[in-house]
Design a protein that fits this description.
Elements: H1 11-29, H2 31-44, H3 46-58, H4 78-81, H5 87-131
Helix pairs in contact: 2-3
Amino acid sequence: MNSYIEPRPSVMDRIGQTLAGVRDWLDDRGKAAWIVAMILGFIAFWPVGLATLGYMIWSKRMFSCRHRHDRPARFSAPHFAAPTGNAAFDAYRSETLKRLEDEHREFLDFLQKLREAKDKAEFDQFMAGRKEPPALQS
């Protein structure tokens, strides 16, 4: 019989898990929830509000509408998936949502290719600049 006992998570691990859960909960509710949390943090204890503001800026939650790219598109949320009782509409809606998700995925792939092309162009320009001999000073 194996008497190995799994170690308990440290206090820092538990705090990290709790903060990740709070972050996910706020992400699910959108940018407005982050702003409310920041304001409440300033009201309760100003360093908490300042830390929240810093995290929002650092993680780009303040300036973008999507944060967790592992979630499906916003339109496939459960309240959009509930059947209405109209089979034709439900089929049309599911087909349209699938098409929008596919277009969204294609657009993200396109943006990634643009970023890669820009990075390659900058790198090629850098390498071309390195091959030129340095200018002689008189």
